[in-house]
Structures are given as C-alpha cells and as structure tokens.
Amino acid sequence: MSEDKNICIDCKRDFRATRDWQRFCTPVCRLRSHRRKQREIEASVVEQNRVASASVL
Ligand SMILES: [Zn+2]
Question: Can you tell which superkingdom this protein's organism belongs to (predicted)?
Fold first, then answer.
C-alpha cells in the first residue's frame, strides 16, 4: 500500500503510521483508549454486582 495515513481511533486525527498495526497517533491516545475501555469493563462489573446483590434480597 502506498497510502500510509491512518486515523487515530481515539482522537480521530490523521497520522502517519510507522507500523501497519498502529491505531493511535501517540502512546497518549493508546493509553487513554485503554483506560476508557478499562472503565467500561469496571462499570459493567459494578452493574452486574448490583444486579446480583439485588436478586439476593
Ligand atoms: Zn490520537
């Protein structure tokens, strides 16, 4: 492929990927995206626990 421009999946900005698998313009965006995903997982776990404890009562 001659086109080596990618769009960062976190900030949606164009960037020049140095690796085919790069999805983020900077490590900052990568970290931010991972943190967000982690928060979503934690939120869903909290929700599951809430439902579980509610069914016990
Ligand atoms: Zn970015």
Answer: Bacteria
In angstroms, what is the span from residue 39 Cα to ligand 1's centroid?
A: 19
Across 3-7, 11-15, 29-33, 44-48, least confident range: 3-7
Rounded CA gap, 30 and 38, in Å? Answer: 12
Examine the pLDDT at 2 and tell me if it is beyond 80: no
Statement: the pTM of the whole predicted model exceeds 0.70 = no
Say whether 12 sits in a helix, a strand or coil: coil
Instruction: Tell me the domain boundaries of the chain.
Output: 5-56
- Report how far ligand 1's centroid is from the alpha carbon of 21 (Å): 14
Instruction: Specify the DSSP element, H or E, that contains 52.
Output: helix 27-56
CA–centroid distance, residue 50 to ligand 1 (Å)? 34
